[in-house]
Amino acid sequence: MLSITSAQWSAWLAAFIFPLARILAVVASTPLLGDKEVPLQIKVGLGVLLTVLVAPTLQVPSNIDPASLQGLLILLEQILVGVVMGFAMRVVFSAVEMAGEVAGLQMGLGFASFYDPQNASFQPVLAQFLGVIVSLAFLAMDGHLLVLAALSDSFQSFPITTAMPSAVGLHTLVSWAGSLFADALQISLPLLAALMMTNLALGILTRSAPQLNLFAVGFPITLGMGFLVLALSMPYFRPLIERFSHAGLSAMLRVVQQLGH
Q1: If you ran DSSP here, which 8-state letter would residue 213 be given?
Q2: Domain enclosing residue 106, as ranges
């Protein structure tokens, strides 16, 4: 008769629960996969499926009871690693949306905002538009599959052990996110430059013709110039977005490697 000891049950449970915690954290925090529009059943099902595929290839300590204090600490550690990885990719989307928000404010579209169910807040329409663009570009370059591949590689960079993660990785993530937000302003720089010249021209026109109603004339001109420059800049968005996405994927693995040191 086949008999299974409690130690074997604990080892099998640890080999499944620990990878599942990291995978579910990545799925829940990464863009597109973690959006609120994706049903919870699909997220959990995808996490379980990935765990079934990845878990047999991992070396998980078999002498740790998942219900013990040490097992709970390892579980929290895996959740932290997964959230950090997902945050590294979400920064890319947030940076592009921030560039759209800055450009929208300069165009005079600061009042035009729609409810964003993802962030449970109102967001300028141009920021949402660039958010859709970056999502489509991310899917076109198979970014969701690259995220899953990086997730699989993370178990080799930072295996499931009792070692505590290093704070160096978190510092690297924060530094890289700050530099990415600065680089994301490149998307809005052509629009900002064109609008600055437009506003200077309107200012000179107002000084030369004081009887001219600036609010009646300036707003349509500023808005039209903004949309024109935005349309001319669209072909150059994809290379920048692809570069940002690849930088986010590289940051995911680099941060995970540094967490293990």
Answers
A1: -
A2: 6-259
122: its two tokens:
């109102």
Angle at 221 (CA atoms; ends 228, 215), nearest 5 degrees: 150
- Burial code (b: 16+ CB inside 10 Å, e: under 16) for 25-37 equals bbbbbbbbbbeee
pLDDT tens per residue, range 89-130: 888 888 888 888 878 777 777 666 665 655 556 667 777 888
pLDDT at 4: 65
**What residues pair up with 124 in beta bridges, in sequence order?**
113
Q: Name the nearest CA neighbour of 180 among 229, 247, 134.
A: 247
Interval 26-68: pLDDT, tens: 888 888 888 777 888 888 888 888 888 888 887 777 677 777 7
Q: Give the global pTM.
A: 0.79
The reply to whether 1 falls in a domain is no
Per the structure, the count of domains in the chain is 1
Distance of alpha carbon 15 from alpha carbon 36, whole angstroms: 29
